[in-house]
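INTERNAL AUDIT FORM
Audit reference: QA-55
Scope: verify that the stored structure record matches its stored sequence.
Auditor: D.O.
Record contents follow.
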Amino acid sequence: MSEELRECYKKVFYDMRKVPLFSGIYDAENSSEEFMHGICTVMEYIANSISMDNGQKFSDVFSKMMSFSQDIAREKEQK
């Protein structure tokens, strides 16, 4: 992959991360977990296109934020 293409992926990745949904934060109470896994797959592809280290870091953060969103939904459900 050319450095120019890698830079394009980087710009897209960081622009998309500004939207909480693309960082793993979502309304777990009303939205589909499967949909979030689809978003994660696309975002991981873009992150891995920048670098494998970037891809792993993104995957870790996305999973953590998704679990956080699901925990909040569970707490609301129990009330």
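Auditor finding: record pair retrieved intact. The chain has three helices and no strands.
Action required: none
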